[in-house]
UniProtKB/TrEMBL annotation:
GO terms for biological process: galactose metabolic process. It comes from Cytobacillus oceanisediminis. This is UDP-glucose 4-epimerase. Its EC number is 5.1.3.2. Pfam families: Epimerase. One of its GO terms (molecular function) is UDP-glucose 4-epimerase activity. GO terms for cellular component: cytosol.
Length: 182
C-alpha cells in the first residue's frame, strides 16, 4: 500500500514507519524537514508546513495514498487543512488523538463520554489547550471529512531507548521512589 506518515521521524511516528516498512509498504514521510532520520532510500520524503493550506496543497497536489497516518494534527484548523488537502486522494485517514478528549474523570471512561458528531467546532480560537485542540480536531474530521477517519485515542505514550520526552524515565523513577517511601 501507499502510506503517508505525517510526523514520522521522532517518537512513535518513527516506530510506525519502521513497522510499515517491515510489512512491505511504500512509505512517504511528511515533516518540516528539521529532524533527520536513518531510513535512507527506503522512504520518500516531503517537506511541509502542516499549518499552511497552500504548502499542504502544493506538497500533495498529485499524490494519492491508501492510508494517511497523521501524528501532528493538534487543532481543528489543521484538521480542516487536511480535509481540504486530501479530499478524493485517500482511502483512509488515521488521526492520532488522545484520551485527553474525555477530560479529567474520576470514573470509568466510555466512548460515549465524548460525542464528537455533536461537538461544536471553533475554528477562530487563537490557541487551544492540548485536550481541547484534540477534541476540536476529532470533531472537525468526523463532521466534515469525505473520507473514512479513524481516531486513535492514545492514553499515555512512553517509549524505550528513543524516548526524547523523558516520560519513561520519569515513570520508572517514580515507581522506584515509591518503593523507598514505605
Amino acid at each position: 500500500m501507499e502510506i503517508l506518515v505525517m510526523g514520522g521521524t521522532k517518537f512513535f511516528g518513527r516506530r510506525l514507519v519502521e513497522l510499515l516498512l517491515e510489512d512491505g509498504h511504500n512509505v512517504t514521510i511528511a515533516t518540516r524537514g528539521q529532524t533527520s532520520d536513518d531510513f535512507g532510500e527506503k522512504v520518500k520524503r516531503i517537506k511541509i508546513d502542516r499549518t499552511d493550506q497552500s504548502s499542504m496543497k502544493r506538497a500533495f497536489a498529485d499524490q494519492y495514498f491508501d492510508v494517511v497516518y497523521d501524528q501532528i494534527c493538534f487543532n481543528p484548523r489543521e484538521a480542516k487543512i487536511a480535509v481540504e488537502t486530501f479530499s478524493n486522494r485517500i482511502k483512509r485517514y488515521v488521526f492520532t488523538s488522545s484520551m485527553a478528549v474525555y477530560g479529567h474523570k474520576e470514573t470509568e471512561i466510555v466512548e460515549r463520554d465524548f460525542i464528537l458528531e455533536d461537538y461544536k467546532v471553533n475554528l477562530d480560537a487563537d490557541d487551544y489547550a492540548y485536550d481541547e485542540g484534540k477534541r476540536q480536531a476529532e470533531a472537525y474530521f468526523f463532521q466534515h471529512a469525505a473520507f473514512p477517519v479513524v481516531a486513535v485515542r492514545v492514553a499515555m505514550v512512553v517509549s524505550g531507548n528513543d524516548d526524547f520526552t523523558g516520560r519513561f524515565d520519569f515513570y520508572v523513577g517514580h515507581v522506584a521512589n515509591i518503593g523507598t517511601a514505605f
